[in-house]
What we know:
Layout: H1 10-15, H2 28-36, E1 44-47, H3 54-62, E2 65-69, H4 76-82, E3 89-94, E4 102-106, H5 108-112, E5 120-125, H6 166-176, E6 183-187, H7 193-200, E7 204-209, H8 216-222, E8 228-231, E9 246-249, H9 254-262, E10 267-272, H10 278-287, E11 291-297, E12 300-304, E13 310-314, E14 318-324
Parallel strand pairs: 1-2, 6-7, 6-9, 7-8, 9-10
Antiparallel strand pairs: 2-5, 3-4, 3-5, 10-14, 11-14, 12-13
Helix pairs in contact: 6-7, 9-10
Bound molecules: S-adenosylmethionine (SAM).
Amino acid sequence: SGDPGFFGIVRRVRAAGLPVRVLPAVSSVAATFARAGLSWDGAAVVSAHGRDLGPALNACRALPVVAVLTAPGAGAAELGAGLAGWSRRLAVAEQLGTPDERLTWTTPEQAAATVWADPHVVLSLAPDAVPADRIRADNQPAAAPAGGWALPESAYAHRASMITKAEVRALVVARLRPRLGRLLWDVGAGSGSVGIECALLGAAVIAVERDPDAPIRANAARHGVDVRVVAGAAPAALDALPDPDAVFVGGGGTDVLAAVAARRPPRVVAALAALDRVAPAVHLLRAAGYAVEGSQLAAARLADLPGGSLRLAATNPVVVLTGELPEPSAWRKP
Length: 334
Ligand SMILES: C[S@@+](CC[C@H](N)C(=O)[O-])C[C@H]1O[C@@H](n2cnc3c(N)ncnc32)[C@H](O)[C@@H]1O
């Protein structure tokens, strides 16, 4: 069905060494967008067919326009269940090209409660309110951001010191390994700068922040990414969240780190300004089975002096801890 060279059988036939002549038809993805009357040049196309649903689900959480090729048990119902809490509408195209062909617009909640006929394709779309410039039209729906990352603090609205400094953020974001298909939590998100940069690199992100006035949504909109904001205090606010691939703990005490470790994310990164918290955090992560490494970062930035001289202006030292579960199988690979 569809184009056999697009998530189809051509690769397998070639791998078997058989001679192959491909006669393409309209892909089910193209057919679905056509039935929905939408352009799809900025869409990401992912497959849950014969593989873990998680990366496809996280693509829907991260990006505004995603088409998902499905399989029985990994289709519209399962995607709908996983999208609870994210603002999305879904289009489900069942049995394309047959007399029973049907396109249904639905919500994640309704999709989760429906039995869908196979085969079907799911479109996951951010709401209409999302500005048109959110939709990538550069043929690279999940490419690294054109404007880079580890951006200066001036790129974010923030209050006083409630932002991870650019030099620290560069290391933290690298250690979190964000990419399309992964889900990250930014706990104690503050300005949301860490989570936003992970979202710029393709990850689905949940920002947890107890201050309801924190400017996370405004910052995410400014950078054109979708970050789900959970307003509440960790650890309680973490209970109902889906399991992450990596967590950044930028705020909260040892109890927050303990609650995060209990969820067994493959990677945990913490930035600690208070020295007395470093040893308990290391011991806690090690006791939970994480291999831990840490370093202190104290960037001194160039600043101008009168007369054209330069001086160094110190930023506050921070200890960055990275905890990694040793089992490679625990690291969910998209
Ligand atoms: C292995 S992929 C094949 C994709 C195919 N090569 C194409 O270009 O459409 C299988 C998935 O494609 C989608 N699909 C293929 N044919 C379909 C059809 N007639 N109606 C709805 N979805 C279809 C479904 O999501 C199905 O699970």
